[in-house]
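Appendix B, example 12.
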Amino acid sequence: MANPQIENGFTRIANVLLEALIKAEMSGHCFRLTLLILRKTYGFNKREDTISLTQMAKISGMSKSRCSQIINILEDIKIVTVSEYCNGLTKKYRFNKDYEVWKTVSENCYHNINITKEIFSPTSNEVRLSELLFFLIRHRYPNFKQPNLQKWASHIDKMLRLDKRPVDEVEKVITWCQADSFWQANILSTQKLREKYDQLYLKAGKLTNQTRYF
């Protein structure tokens, strides 16, 4: 039976920051890496620390590429700051305790927006692929409005469940279309992604002996 004791170590964090994190609207993956950075910094009485993607992946259970995507999202929404260290060979991560600048939905916003009931888990493929598309768009257009990820996930769900699109294929199509000079300006939602999927798939892949390759 687990029996944790503070004598074995603890992370000192202000209650107001915990309350801000509770109110922050972000995915489960984002929350997990935020806690990881808090653990590796505040947990050792440090303001920032170098943390490798390999270490992040081992602790979080996510892939290194997924950790990299999530870190970029956290930096974009100003919950984490990233700085280069040792001539750019490694990176240092710091939790941004100025929660007033976080680009998340605050308690005061709830009276002004319609909250869609959460149907898809933050760790689901539907939300993960929606976040990927959003991240790639926001990377080019920093002022791109935060979408309702549950609504975006519903279109991904239809692609996977009704259209029978494989998850890894959808991920590759998303990545390709956001790197293409024409399609990146035309695919700005998962709804549009679904509408144009066949065209994107054919453009992204090569048709050889009835097998498409990316």
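The domain at 11-106 is CATH 1.10.10.10 (Arc Repressor Mutant, subunit A). The chain has two domains: 11-106, 114-214.
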